[in-house]
Amino acid sequence: MAGLAPEGSQFNASQYDSKMNDLLSSDGQDFFTSYDEVYDSFDAMGLQENLLRGIYAYGFEKPSAIQQRGIVPFCKGLDVIQQAQSGTGKTATFCSGILQQLDYSLTHCQALVLAPTRELAQQIEKVMRALGDYLGVKVHACVGGTSVREDQRILSSGVHVVVGTPGRVFDMLRRQSLQPDYIKMFVLDEADEMLSRGFKDQLLPSKIQVGVFSATMPPEALEITRKFMNKP
């Protein structure tokens, strides 16, 4: 696969190509990972007590396969690519990883989650808000069809996480209502639909943790991930 890793990255090109070839050749039924540790319970993951309270209050009892393998690497600040079918717990995986790492003493946006549709962005916002209920997380969905002024008002008051669609998020960045300076985590949900937009390269800091989540991962999407991920 062609492409250049970011400057200063610990990217291992041969290992990446090997893993991506495995992913492309799989039928979607097998689960494989480059991360060795598997956690059979949420309690074993070293999560904050108030995050665990939110997870259990939401109704989770035992982590799904992707949660067993995906939450802790994200919490450790690793770049991740995770492919799993819809309904397997992808959203709670990256929401938990984000919530674990936020500095709640700062009222700056520290995590940006992009989704291809308004409905999905609003769904993610609800999950993030529910899981982070006992942490006091401030999350806002920036999506089309809603008031631009209201978005600006909420962003100016301070949020920890922004979930949104590319058009509205780009508009908030252009208006400088959303400042990228403190963003340290960036997640693409339904990445197969999102990566071709070139959004991350244009707008976000070079040193940022990236999470890519999708039910499907076509070759062109994986090729683009190589340009901006650090040792996924």
Could you characterize the architecture of this molecule?
With 232 residues, this protein is an alpha/beta fold. It has one domain: P-loop containing nucleotide triphosphate hydrolases (Rossmann fold). 41% of the residues lie in helices and 12% in strands. The chain has 10 helices and 6 strands; from the N terminus they run H-H-H-E-H-E-H-E-H-E-H-E-H-H-E-H. The chain has helices at residues 13-25, 49-58, 65-75, 90-101, 118-131, 148-157, 166-174, 191-194, 199-203, 219-225, and strands at residues 80-83, 111-114, 139-142, 161-164, 185-189, 209-214. A 6-stranded parallel β-sheet has the order 1-6-5-2-4-3, with helices on both faces. Helix 3 (65-75) runs parallel beside helix 4 and helix 4 packs across helix 5 (118-131).
Itemize the secondary structure elements and their pairings.
Blueprint: H1 13-25, H2 49-58, H3 65-75, E1 80-83, H4 90-101, E2 111-114, H5 118-131, E3 139-142, H6 148-157, E4 161-164, H7 166-174, E5 185-189, H8 191-194, H9 199-203, E6 209-214, H10 219-225
Parallel strand pairs: 1-6, 2-4, 2-5, 3-4, 5-6
Helix pairs in contact: 3-4, 4-5
Function: RNA helicase.
EC number: 3.6.4.13
Catalytic activity: ATP + H2O = ADP + phosphate + H(+)
For this entry, give a set of tags.
Rossmann fold; 6 strands; 41% helix; disordered N terminus; single chain; six-stranded parallel beta sheet; alpha/beta; 12% strand; 232 residues
